[in-house]
Write a structure and sequence with these properties.
The complex is a heterodimer.
Chain A (H helix, E strand, L loop, with lengths): L1 E10 L4 E11 L4 E5 L6 H9 L5 E9 L2 E2 L5 H6 L2 E4 L11 H15 L7 H14 L17 H15 L3 E5 L7 H14 L5 E6 L3 H5 L4 E6 L2 E6 L1 H10 L7
Parallel strand pairs in A: 3-8, 3-9, 6-7, 7-8
Antiparallel strand pairs in A: 1-2, 1-4, 4-5, 9-10
Chain B lengths: L1 E4 L30 H4 L14 E4 L4 E5 L7 H9 L3 E6 L9 E4 L4 E9 L4 E8 L6 E10 L4 E8 L6 E10 L4 E8 L4 E10 L5 E10 L4 E10 L5 E10 L4 E10 L7 E10 L5 E10 L5 E9 L3 H9 L4 H14 L8 H18 L1
Parallel strand pairs in B: 4-6, 5-7, 6-8, 7-9, 8-10, 9-11, 10-12, 11-13, 12-14, 13-15, 14-16, 15-17, 16-18, 17-19
Antiparallel strand pairs in B: 1-2, 2-5, 3-4
Helix pairs in contact in B: 3-4, 4-5
Classes of the chains: A alpha/beta, B alpha/beta.
Chain lengths: ~250, ~350
Amino acid sequence: MLKINNLSASVDDGQKQILNGLSLEIPAGEVHAIMGPNGAGKSTLSYVLTGRDGYDVTGGDVTLGGEDLLDMDPEQRAAKGMFLSFQYPLEIPGVPTMTFLKTALNAQRRARGEDEMAAPEFLKKARALAADLKMKPEMLKRPLNVGFSGGEKKRMEIFQMMMLEPSFIVMDETDSGLDVDALRIVADGVNKLRSPDRGMLIITHYQRLLDYIVPDKVHVLTSGKIVASGDADFAKKLEKEGYDAYAA
Amino acid sequence: MQILRKNSKKKAMTHMPLNLKTLPSRRDEAWKWTDLRGRVSDGQAGLSADGHPKFTAPEGVVLSQGEGHAGEGIMSKLAQNFAPQSWNIYVPAGFKNGEALLIEDITRGHVRVSIMVDKGAELTMIEHHSGDAATFTNFDLHIHLADGASLTRVIVHDDPIEAIRVATACVASEKDARFNQFVLSFGGGLSRLETRLHVEGAGFEANMNGAYLLRDHRHCDMSSHIDLTQPDCTIRQAVKGVVTDKARGVFQGKFLVQRPAQHTDAEMRHDALMLSDSSEIRSKPELEIYADDVACAHGNTIGQLDESALFYMQQRGIPIGQARALLTEAFLADVFDDLDDEDLKDSILGKLRDWLKDTA
């Protein structure tokens, strides 16, 4: 599914090297978690995978389903199935949530050469999923994320995931800003999306989220590369012992 | 419905050609960013001639020609010189009709229009300002709103890149009158859409909103001057602009709150987006207040589209051009929120979207 091979990347026009030969392979159907201290390069990895401006790839390659991702624009990567759940979802003033999502879904479909989804079908799907996530229907009419609480924004990210049905999901600090109830709703949503055709990468600072979304593998990222890997229990050990043992 | 057009076969008036030196230039403070004299050339079509607009008026609205109102400003004086006959429009007291007064073909020359909206009457008027090629247009409009009269004025302006246009509206209002103005401008070679309100009666309410969308070398100047001399008036002004390429947007707004104008509640906003490094925005909001019990505010921002928001939209699969268009439309569209006529609003938002599509 997702193959990251010897990936290096810098920011600030090459002034600051963040990723240093990171390699990782996440097969379809698996959920991997990346943990690591502040400044290890966790968020940088999520932005490099999704093609944000300002992050220069200086070496290595990344493929999704065998296709080279790094030469694609962010929207092309999205159409190929790459989805990033943002640590801080953006507010989009003046663009109602439904308009935003319908535009996104149909742009992806067009890019894949598929037919657009008609309005009634889209609405039906959106209403059903919103109910699953215990979202108020009026939230869908409001401009995307504007005035939403931290928890509502994260729930909206999960809602978008369910609507867009990506093949690979990167979750950047999805648990930040969530109380326990919201965390459970979000985790339930993510667990429902687990499927043999879909891969997931969960980037997190704390082990807490992994009690709810149990990963197949856990990796430690420090100084821009993976320095250790283990199974789900490894995360508990990391939480207890800290990252010092893995400092570069 | 009545359609009137000035009989252009009537023997043309002959005038001395316009002396370019009489035109306002950047040496005049009010025109410092819209250098009319510097842009107009001798022999420009329409420079020394009267124009021939087309009027479509709802039944009951009376159109005639006559001397009209004699305005004071230099552009008004030029209009009086080259267009001795004014179009006079009378809206009878209590008039109410869903249909709008349409003024089209304001394509070149000097045009004078006087509108009297009598007591309690309600009217919507739509002006289409669009020239052909390198024309010069000087549109001089006078509006009188009697007690309780209500006028909604909608302007759609789209000129070729060589065209020069000045459109000035002077509005005088009596007690409890209402004035709503919505402007959509795509600019021209040089254009200035100016609105001057003189409030002569208490309890006046006005909304003066506008959006300018400019590309290439286009220029649009939205200037306004609001003179408040009576108490209990409410003014809301929101102008938004988007400029790209080498276009230039100008906003000048002034609220003059005279001593008797107590309990004035007035707000002026100008917000603009610059989508290219070579585009330009010039802005001058002014408040001059002599009354002591008023609420007056102004705000002015110039910015760019939020890069993080654009990336977020791209990450969801929306192509960058479409993402820019969506964000820009969202930024501009609320200027037309209070336009009650939904069909008219849809048509305006449609034009705005077309422009964004072509520009993306």
